[in-house]
Design brief:
With 277 residues, the protein is of the alpha+beta class. It has ten helices and seven strands. It has two domains: 136 residues, no CATH class; 112 residues, no CATH class. Keywords: Membrane, Transmembrane, Transmembrane helix.
């Protein structure tokens, strides 16, 4: 099997400060882009796994106004809801809490709901949150899960938490996708600035006779190779304990350390007649 082919040659380079420099011409721009996506993905994986275990999210993301209607009395009313086997066994129309702009109740009519800017309505087979966020209206219609137990609610805080957990259960896939994509985009942009910035300073050394770095792609190649070990370590740290700040720090300091080691080993100068080691 050939070892001097992409991406095997990349993994040969990341563990050797000398090869980080010597292999700088082995990757074209497309390969460099693939490597960049790979290094970014290493940080996204722990984030996605961490998000998959989330039970509650910030209430302001889906019910900033409805949460204010979840009072102590409303919590007691919700506690009495006869929800069994994914269904509300009560067809009566009840209003638990109502203000000029919002309402919480059971089996409310479309007319009652349309008159309010936000609402929480429990019907026989579905439950619904209607919210106005940032001037836009959102309607979330969800099923009752087997884990939704209103009878266990004893106060306002537990009511909010229970509604939050049920919302997450019903929307876990879309929430996971949204949070992963958002985190991935932020990491993509942050790492892009780091890589391009570090590569720019390496590229400036081409003006010196003491440096054999002659192109920007060579500089980018060295930076991405230097990020390899740090990114892998950051991945395993993130799998044990997810902290995006710590992971980015490990990746960045790993890159700096390997670039410095590469400079110590090679002085960024090619030596004729010396084989890669």
């Amino acid at each position: 099997m050939k070892t001097d082919v992409f991406p095997i040659n990349y993994f040969q380079a990341i563990f050797s400060p000398r090869k980080i420099f010597q292999f700088r011409k082995k990757f074209n721009w497309f390969q460099l882009f693939v490597l960049y996506l790979f290094l970014t993905a290493l940080l996204v994986i722990p984030a996605t796994l961490s998000f998959s275990g989330v039970k509650v999210i910030d209430e302001n993301q889906f019910m900033p106004h409805v949460k204010e209607l979840l009072t102590e009395q409303t919590a007691k009313d919700i506690q009495q809801l006869p929800i069994k086997n994914g269904q509300l066994n009560d067809s009566a129309v009840q209003i638990f809490e109502e203000t000029k702009k919002g309402v919480i109740g059971t089996n409310l009519s479309e007319k009652q709901l349309s008159e309010k800017q936000y609402s929480l309505n429990f019907s026989e087979k579905k439950w619904q949150i209607h919210e106005t966020i940032g001037g836009k209206q959102y309607v979330y219609q969800m099923n009752y899960s087997d884990k939704f137990s209103p009878e266990k609610i004893t106060n306002q805080k537990e009511a909010r938490t229970s509604i939050n957990e049920e919302f997450v259960r019903n929307n876990r896939s879309s929430l996971l996708l949204t949070m992963s994509v958002t985190t991935g985009f932020l990491l993509f942009m942050m790492n892009l600035l780091l890589v391009l910035g570090a590569a720019f300073f390496l590229w400036l050394t081409k003006k010196s006779r003491l440096s054999s770095i002659h192109s920007y792609s060579e500089s980018v190649s060295m930076v991405l190779a230097s990020m390899g070990i740090g990114s892998i370590i950051a991945l395993f740290v993130g799998l044990v304990h997810f902290d995006i700040t710590v992971m980015i720090g490990i990746q960045s300091f790993g890159m700096i350390g390997m670039l410095f080691a590469s400079y110590i080993k090679t002085r960024f100068k090619d030596s004729r007649g010396v084989e890669d080691k």
